[in-house]
Amino acid sequence: MNCGFLVSDDIPLEASYSRLLTMLSEFGVLEEVQESVVVQVIAEGFIMDETIAIDATHFEARDKAPAKEERIKPEPKKRGRKSREEREAWMQAEAEKEAVLPLYERKIEAQLNASLEDLRIAIPQDPKWGIKKNSEGKNVFWFVYKGHLAVGAQSQYISSGNLNGGKAAIPLLKGMEEKFELSNIRYVTMDAGYDYEPIYQQVHQMGQQSIIAYNKRNESEVVGFDKHFAPTCFREHSYRYDSYDAKYETLKYTSPKECADCPLANESICQKVYKKKIADDLRRYTAPARGSQAWKKLFKQRTAVKRVNAYLKEFFQLNNVRYRTGKRAKMHFDIVMLIYNASKLAADRINLVLNQSKAA
Question: Domain-by-domain residue ranges, the chain?
C-alpha cells in the first residue's frame, strides 16, 4: 500500500494528509523505519560508542489539561504499631492494589520481568503536568509530554521512547538490547532522576556498568564509608579507588594518601587493601567507583544527550507539536527522531567519502 506523496504530485488535500497521519499512527510504521535506520548505522560502523547517555526532554502538549481532582481527605490513621494480624492484612491489601494497577503505575521492579512487547503496548501516551524551577527559583508548570532519549555519547545517534517519569529507562534498555547488536557498549550514564535499584539491576543483567548520579533519599550516613561509599580508615580518611576485577566483579581500594604520615600506618589495625563486590549493592558500587576521576569523566559524557535535546527542539521542531492526543503527538515525536537519525547518517556518509578522497 502506497501511503506517501511524491514531490511531483499535487499538494495533497488536508483530508488526504490527515488520513496519512492516521495510518502512520495506527500501524507503527515510523518505529519500524527508525529501527531499520539505526541497524543500518550500526552495520556501516558509525556507532562505536562505549557509553550510552539517557535523559528526558519535555515538549508542550496541545491537549486541554484535565480539571483538578479534589482529593478525598483520608481517614485518620490508628496510632501505634499494628498487630501482626493487622500488618499481614494491610500487606495483602496493598499487594492486591498493586496487582490490578497498569504496568507503568506499579513499582519499577515490575518492569524487570515484563517482556519488551508488553512494555511497549502498555506505555501511557497522555500528557501530564510538569514542574521545574526557573532561573529565579520560582516553580514553572507545563502540561507536557516527555520523551526519553538514549544517545551514543560520541556518535550522538538516538533511540527513543515517549513516556513520563523515570520509568522509561528499563524499556529503553531492553529495546536496545533486543533490537540492536551493541556489544561494544560498556557504560550507561543517567542523572539522579533515574536512581532506582531496578534500573541498576537491568544494566547489570546486560553486562554493563551504571554511571548514575546518586539521589540521597532520607538515608543516614554509612559508618566507615565516605559520601562516595569508599571505605575509610580509623582516622576517617578515604581509601583510593585502584582498579576493577571484571572476573569477580570486585572493586579494589588502596590505602589513603594520608597513610604516609599516619602513626598507625605500621599497625596491624590498618588495612592496606580493601575489596568490595559491586553485587553487594549495585546502587552504591559500580565500575569505575563513584567519586573516582574515571567515574567523573564518564558521567560528563551525559552532556551528549543534552546537546541532542537542544538540536531536536531548535532545528527539528520537537517543541512545535501541532496535534492533539497522545497518538498524534507520539507520531510527531517518531518523525522527529527518524529525520534526525537519517540526517545524521547522510552527513556521516558524506564526511566518510570526503575523508577517503583526501586520504587518496
Answer: 20-68+87-191+302-359
